[in-house]
Amino acid sequence: MKKFFSVADVDNLSTIVKEALALKAAPNAHRKLGEHKMLGLVFLNPSLRTRLSTQKAAINLGMDVMVMNMDKDGWALETRDGVVMDGTTVEHIREAAAVMGEYCDVLGLRSFPGLKDRKEDYSEDLFNKFSTYCKKPLVSLESATRHPLQSLTDLITILEHTPSTSKEVDGKFSTVTAKPKVVLTWAPHVKALPQAVPNSFSEWMCKAQEQGLLDFTITHPEGYELDEHFTNGATITTNQNEALKNADFVYVKNWSSYQEYGKILVTGREWMPTPEKLKVTNHAKVMHCLPVRRDLELSSALLDGPDSLVIQEAGNRVWAAQVVLKRILENL
Amino acid sequence: MKKFFSVADVDNLSTIVKEALALKAAPNAHRKLGEHKMLGLVFLNPSLRTRLSTQKAAINLGMDVMVMNMDKDGWALETRDGVVMDGTTVEHIREAAAVMGEYCDVLGLRSFPGLKDRKEDYSEDLFNKFSTYCKKPLVSLESATRHPLQSLTDLITILEHTPSTSKEVDGKFSTVTAKPKVVLTWAPHVKALPQAVPNSFSEWMCKAQEQGLLDFTITHPEGYELDEHFTNGATITTNQNEALKNADFVYVKNWSSYQEYGKILVTGREWMPTPEKLKVTNHAKVMHCLPVRRDLELSSALLDGPDSLVIQEAGNRVWAAQVVLKRILENL
Amino acid sequence: MKKFFSVADVDNLSTIVKEALALKAAPNAHRKLGEHKMLGLVFLNPSLRTRLSTQKAAINLGMDVMVMNMDKDGWALETRDGVVMDGTTVEHIREAAAVMGEYCDVLGLRSFPGLKDRKEDYSEDLFNKFSTYCKKPLVSLESATRHPLQSLTDLITILEHTPSTSKEVDGKFSTVTAKPKVVLTWAPHVKALPQAVPNSFSEWMCKAQEQGLLDFTITHPEGYELDEHFTNGATITTNQNEALKNADFVYVKNWSSYQEYGKILVTGREWMPTPEKLKVTNHAKVMHCLPVRRDLELSSALLDGPDSLVIQEAGNRVWAAQVVLKRILENL
What distance in Å separates residue B53's CA from the closest CA in chain A? Predict the structure, then answer.
């Protein structure tokens, strides 16, 4: 692996999930692999899970880690070419990325979208330029339109919790894994959030569906359609109740509108998943990438109930990061 | 040891001090103990000594350390249950603590009191909830009402500087340690400070007095009485001069009123310890937890004089943290 | 080496450059040297290159590193003696430095000048006091008047890129290194910047000139004369074109006036180096300490052109820091 930006950077999803679960079973088995290798984590926006889980993954692989909070350190980056830098930006991404590439063997970058200019956000200009100029393998720690470490984590968690059964066929026993129904449902929020998590979740689930691992449905209010680029093959409906029927996993997430870019179109808690609403599911497991607004996005009863996977899901962030870093280290 | 929140988490004080001083003599003797163990330090408030000394202690034990500054990263935590999170808090402590517990083997938490609602502060709700939800051993890096790593440090420093003498009894020589007189005195400040340090110092000194290690006196202006829960057995007086007589150690600290909660009742520098005031002591050693306001809380002449222990005291923070982490690691 | 504050802390410049380049060739050859040694990096101002390169250098030597951002943590230090600390400063440098000295074997300190009071800035009071009170070897990570790790880096980069030729003398072949012409030129900026980088570069180049390693010229507009203390032996001219003639290395940097202290006297981009201006040079290599304001301080055409050394120069920061730390560790 040379970079990790989207699901296109992974070929066989089942294989990478198995590799991640093997790391979960033996976290320190590859401590030599990253020896004397430096990971630089660059945050242009806040982070809790991503910061800690990626650091831990790197340490499990024997890497050294340096963290750079560029939002905090007052280091506004210029990304446009051909401008006279006589304003507020103090350094161009050409130099900043190249310099960090000099100090690190692998880099990670977090940069949220501005949610004002859709074309600019969806060009992924900042991530792409950083990747070009740093000249080192770059891992997305969430970019303007995707959060692939989260999505890989979600896939790991779904497959980990999908029951296998032993089945007799022609007198022979073999293990059969049921194909779960995974539902992504929009949920309310008071702030306008990026589409990065649902875009990314959707493109990973669509590919998993293609590879025969699961069935994927998306439900959201009208006006919240995601960019079609990410939803190829998914069943999409604005009828939440219909979508939830027989679901095995319900993935809850708010996002702002892609059509009316960055806008909040629906208020009120009508779309918030509750135990009542989930009665039509197949005792569905409940997932959320966190942080979650309790009793606004998702009812406390579900979060604290026996079917919540949110904490295990967050825990699995380590194994997603570790398998990605492992594959990158193996190709340095 | 399963957590470190108050003096109640330590049984024999003399034993833990001896263990800490053994670590001071051989800091790297236990580098294998913490191998592949992750310490997460969570700061909801600023820190210098606690941050650095605890990191160093963990590294001495071979642990890996991740630091999370949650005040800086704009990550306001919700602690109340049953509220709809449609305001400014972005994550509930239930999730935040549980997630950090997924990534770490041991956690440390700093959280200052608001100094507005005494009942809330003294309930130690935040620390207790974090401890419950993280499901890992939790070390207080100063909570609303206590600063136990500081108090353990102070006890180490006092016993380290208490002279032992050789004495003949019935023809046999044995080492006898004098029982020192320790005095905690209130001192002026321009800001309203928590009671955490004096509460904690007092409960540690009271227990040390019970175990026959020292005699303990508290002196402060009227209205600055500490919660009785922390001062059981101490001699308490509002006569500073009387308290200082024959003192071997003078521990200087400001705090805001517990009765008129969070208020400053006394201004002016009348209560500031000076060389003149300390003439009635037994050449007392001077202690302060730092940071100290020079010539407001404590005179420069004392801070820079030969009887000041403040720097050695700060240095001993490492051994207090290290003995606590060592005991926790031994019980994982 | 006991501290690293200025060129006076290094005897033979050629020797230290060779030692640094040996570290570049084998970064991990001394991993045992720093084992169980703690480096504390204290930043009173922002940092990217210095922070990352010094961390990496320390890790290459096997040291542990703790970073303390004192600007961020709201920890305003008092440096004056004899004042009653009843204002906004929360801790005196006497205690802060001494405490950090308790936790670390080697310290680094960054502190920019205020650019208001020249006498105060040029006294280097803060650095000197920190050095005195911490009682440990102290490395300047840029002080009020100097940035020695940058200057050592610059010298390494210049000598690394100075061609050697084989020459026959009396029938024997020997390696001869040409003496390059190094030019420091002032360049425009929109903010008033310290003189630390040009002061420091100048004192290192003047000493290198004394030791026969290069020829050194400074050019700047009238009113931008540096303190003579730093420019001893340099050719100084206000004619930029004259200065650039036959230059092998052009070092571009803005600074505010030393005479009219901290003021910007020249605006406009007339002094900005461009390919056109550099036609009179000997295909000069272009250097800048970064961050650089593109097309204000230095033209993009030069920055992105084949003669730019700015990224390699930034990369060399690691070896400058590593050779300094190595020499300090060898003398602990």
Answer: 20
Round to whole Å and give the CA distance between A82 and C300: 8
Which fold is adopted by the domain C7-147+316-330?
Rossmann fold (3.40.50)
What is the structure's pLDDT at C19? Answer: 98
Give the pLDDT confidence score for residue C201 in this predicted structure: 98
- Residue A91: its chain C contacts at CB < 8 A? 48, 290-292
Interface membership of B72 toward A (CB under 8 Å): yes
User: Same topology for domains C7-147+316-330 and C162-308, yes or no?
Assistant: yes
Q: Is the pLDDT of residue C171 over 80?
A: no
Separation in Å, CA of A84 to nearest CA in chain B: 32
**Residues 14-53, chain C: which have Cβ within 8 Å of A?**
27-28, 46-49, 51-53
State residue A168's pLDDT score.
Answer: 77
Binding residues of B for N(2)-succinyl-L-ornithine: 142, 189, 253, 293
Closest CA relative to residue B251, chosen from B206, B289, B224, B214: B289
Helices B196-210 and B148-160 cross at an angle (nearest 10°) of 50
B-chain residues near C37 (CB < 8 A): none
Closest CA to A248 of A184, A197, A312: A184
The strand ranges marked E within chain A are: 38-43, 64-69, 77-78, 91-92, 106-110, 138-140, 164-169, 172-177, 181-186, 215-219, 235-237, 249-253, 285-287
Q: What is the chain C residue with the closest CA to B62?
A: C36
Share of chain C above pLDDT 70, in %: 99
Give A56's contacts in chain B (Cβ within 8 Å): 38, 64, 66, 103
User: What sign has the CA pseudo-torsion B303, B306, B309, B312?
Assistant: positive
pLDDT tens-place string over residues B165-211: 777 777 777 777 789 999 999 999 999 999 999 999 999 999 999 99
**pLDDT digits 0-9 by tens, B37-77:** 999 999 999 899 999 999 999 999 999 999 998 865 467 89
Q: Where are the domains of chain A?
A: 7-147+317-330, 162-308
Q: Is residue A150 marked as binding? A: yes
Q: What is the pLDDT of residues A203-215, one digit of tens each?
A: 999 999 999 999 9
Q: Quick one: B7-147+317-330 is in which CATH superfamily? A: Aspartate/ornithine carbamoyltransferase (3.40.50.1370)
Name the CATH topology of C162-308.
Answer: Rossmann fold (3.40.50)
pLDDT single digits (tens) B96-140: 999 999 999 999 999 999 999 999 999 999 999 999 999 999 999
